[in-house]
Request: fold
Amino acid sequence: MAILIAGLLLFLGVHSVRIFADGWRDAQIARVGLNSWKGLYSLLSVAGFALIVWGYGMSRTASAELWSPPTWLRYPASLLLLLAFILLVAVYIPRNRIKTVVGHPMIAGVKVWAFAHLLTNARLGDVVLFGAFLAWAVLGFRAARRRDRASGTSAEAGTWANTAIVLVIGVAAWMVFARYLHPWLIGVAVVGADPF
Reply:
């Protein structure tokens, strides 16, 4: 569990600089340069992510189950994960209405992903991992919206055509991940992934 917690502190700590110390971040970028900042940020993020993967893998066999989630929760969790995939795709397709409405679909997608996993996973390691990401995403989303209001930033208008592209890619990515990659990488089948 210590490795998982260390990874979360490192990974989410790096990703929390804009939440808690935006002015300090700007000063460091001015001091060392944007490329050096991005390099250090990436290095620390990769190291934190590696520790999370390693620590979570160990916690899956070692941590106690805190409660027994009802099996029917797997269905709404699966639909929430579909929504998370759509939100993540919305980040990368320009001028889509989802991005216009949500503002920060990446962080919103992390919130939905973490909450969905908390519905169906009840080991201590699960609660630590997904609870930490959910708390970070709630704080991050609020901070990002606050920055938008302070700077007068508004999302560009989205088109229905680009929104349709987001939906098609998001559903397809969710189906592939849920049907093939999640069972292969995590060892757990996702309910509702196979429409046929």
Remarks:
- The chain has a mean pLDDT of 92.
- Residues 66-196 form one domain.
- DSSP finds nine helices and no strands in the chain.
